[in-house]
Amino acid sequence: MEFRTSLSNSLDRCIGRVASLKPDAKARWGRMNAHQMVCHLNDSFHVAMGEKYASPATSLLTRTLVKFVALYLPLPWPRGVPTRPEIEQGRGGTPPADWDRDRSALCNVIKEFAARQTFGTHPMWATMSRSDWLVWAYRHVDHHLRQFGV
Question: Is 34 helix (H, G, I), strand (E, B) or coil?
Answer without folding.
Answer: helix
